Amino acid sequence: MNALLFHNCNLRNFGRLKSVLSPYRTKNSNLLHFKRHCTNTSTNSSKCLDSTKGASLIQKIGIGLSISGGLFSFSLYNNNVVLCKSRISQNRLAGYRTMSDKDAKFDWQKFWSYLEPHTWYLLAAILGTLIVAILNIQIPRMMGEVINVVAKYSNDLAGHNKFFQDMKIPAFKLIIMYIAQSTFTFFYIFMLSKIGENVALKMRTDLFNSILKQDIAFFDEQRTGELVNRLTADIQDFKSSFKQIISGGLRAVTQILGCAASLIIISPHMTFITLLCVPSVIAAGTFIGSKLRNTSRTAQNQIEKATAIADEAISNIRTVRAFAMEDQENELFRKEAETAMVYNEQLGFGIGLFQAGTNLFLNGMVLSTLYMGGYLLSTNQLSAGDLMAYLMATQTIQRSLAQISLLFGSVIRGLSAGSRVFQYINLEPNMRLRGGVVLPTEEIKGEIQFKNVTFSYPTRPDQKILHKFNLMISSGKTVAIVGSSGNGKSTIVALLERFYDTDGGIITLDGHDLKSLDPSWLRGNVLGLISQEPVLFGTTILENIRYGKPDASDEQVEEAAKLANAHNFIKGFPDAYNTIVGERGIALSGGQKQRVAIARALLKNPSVLLLDEATSALDTESEKVVQTALEQAAKGRTVLVIAHRLSTIQNADIIVVLHKGRIVEMGTHEELKNLKGYYWALNFQQHEDPPAG
Ligand SMILES: Nc1ncnc2c1ncn2[C@@H]1O[C@H](COP(=O)(O)OP(=O)(O)OP(=O)(O)O)[C@@H](O)[C@H]1O
Ligand SMILES: [Mg+2]
């Protein structure tokens, strides 16, 4: 039973971890590993798991258990031993940040809002469960009647002819009950799975929707693996716990109550003694529950962390391979997965102890029933059938209690998984995706102005990127921004796209404050961004370009590709526009990827083109062609170009030189060249003499 419980509560995590960890565990390296990462200088040995003393697992995880007077007193190691904190600043985990889910509360109201549409199914499921429970309560009594008939004929050989006659009714009733029990079991399981799947689907889509709506700053902090884990594992956990709690929990509680009533009817005396111990079990269960919940939450967090590492390593496999970091990544993952395993072992240990205690108590109950029941039978105060019914009812109570202790793990997991899911579902972004002024297309001129803009990234509030930045980009003009790396050029583009809001000052489009405009409309219709590191989706080239305008025809897609000088290389592929570009566009060269991205941006025919190093990945020859294409595309649009290469910017109407978030020079190419200042230094330093002062 313990094994079953353990299996049930930790199946997913253990399944996942076991397969990864077993080779390492056989080498007995897991605990040594922890030791290696312990803070050597620490004098407080309790900060690390000490593997050298040969202590048993129980000692290592520091669980103290004492049973006194039928009450379990449970003390989880969490308070006694702090798991060794590895020197994470020495590995790439140093940047690991997870939103603290300590304050994540299970949102009952929200949960009810998911359940409410399925109230009828829920009621049907509850009714089915109760009927099964009531039948389970009746069955022992009916069985008692059958036993009484059997007992009667075992002593009365002469009257055996009437046996079948007497047996007929109780046996028939019992058969009917068995059939009804099976039918309603099927019914409530089916109902519950219907509700569970529907609720899980709604939660999953709501969570995904909420994640997609979060501010870009949220993604600066979170790791993909963490988010994916909440979308998959946590919702799965929550769903199975919900189903188990409703079916198992409700049935078990009803059966306990019903059977307890049966017991009182059969023998109040025996029942009184049996039930004396129950409150202490409930008290112990509640106490242990609160302790284990914390451990469960920690374990789930840890698994999330391990998943995030695996996710990052797998999606960056080329970098991992290029730096021959496979072993280090493996080690990093193993360490985090091992920590998760330790937490889960602790959880399993606690649950196991509880179950073991419950079993001991219940078996004691059976023995004392037999003891007392036998005595009452011998003094004719109880019939054989009554004793049988009593025993069966106590067995039902025993099974129900065992079920509750099994459920106990589910409740803990379900609540903490649910809290984590609701935490993100309820998270409100600062910036809404929709809502605000939408300008008529024909009125858009594309005049952009930055007025006294001050900005620092939310993750680094102390580092000012722009200080009172002012810039006017007149309608239909091409403005180039140059400046050395890290000066805030891409930040200007990010602010225009409203990936972030300014800390001070305003940005306007045709005189309208950007904050007053509908952000989705702005991004989808006015701005066309070709970013520094364009990323494609793992689908066909056709669909990637069409991403810029989902209702575009194949011809329009082809037109945009021609404009971006991409048509010829696409036609060169055996599958042409249906070529799959691989995850994030990995199966295309840098220049090809860039041109597909340009086509994607041009397809939506934006009024304002934002080119952030758009041609940096192209060779000189393709750059020329794309440059011509972009110049062609720039006609009638406002263009903001960020580029390092002279060729891309020298025809700009105005060139702005940015230095440490401030404009230091401004003018045409010729003017700035003659000025021999920053611009000159940026572009000509290597070819001519340095500026004279
Ligand atoms: N998401 C972010 N969170 C925090 N800081 C950031 C973020 N993105 C950029 N920064 C910081 O802001 C500063 C300006 O970055 P930005 O990307 O605008 O530079 P850039 O001028 O485009 O440089 P490059 O020419 O190398 O592309 C840098 O110091 C950078 O480290
Ligand atoms: Mg940049």
Brief characterization of the structure:
It is a multi-pass membrane protein. The chain is 60% helix and 9% strand. The protein has helices at residues 2-26, 30-36, 57-60, 108-115, 119-155, 163-213, 216-221, 224-266, 268-275, 278-315, 317-322, 326-378, 384-425, 489-496, 519-526, 541-546, 554-563, 567-572, 590-603, 620-634, 646-649, 669-675, 678-684, and strands spanning 64-68, 71-75, 448-455, 466-473, 478-482, 504-509, 512-513, 527-530, 608-612, 638-642, 654-659, 662-667.
For the sheet with most strands, the description reads: 6 strands, mixed
Bound molecules: adenosine-5'-triphosphate, magnesium ion
Order of strands across the main sheet: 8-9-10-5-11-12
At CATH level 2, the architecture of the largest domain is: Up-down Bundle
Please give the domain count.
4
Q: Class of the largest domain in CATH? A: Mainly Alpha
Broad shape: elongated
Q: Give the strand content.
A: 5-15%
Mean pLDDT: 78
The CATH homologous superfamily of the largest domain: ABC transporter type 1, transmembrane domain
Number of strands: 12
Judged by helices, strands and strand pairing, the structural class is alpha/beta
Low-confidence stretches: 1-89, 686-693
Any idea of the CATH topology of the largest domain? ABC transporter transmembrane region fold
Helix content: 55-70%
Number of H- or I-type helical stretches: 23
Radius of gyration: 35 Å
End-to-end C-alpha gap:
84 Å
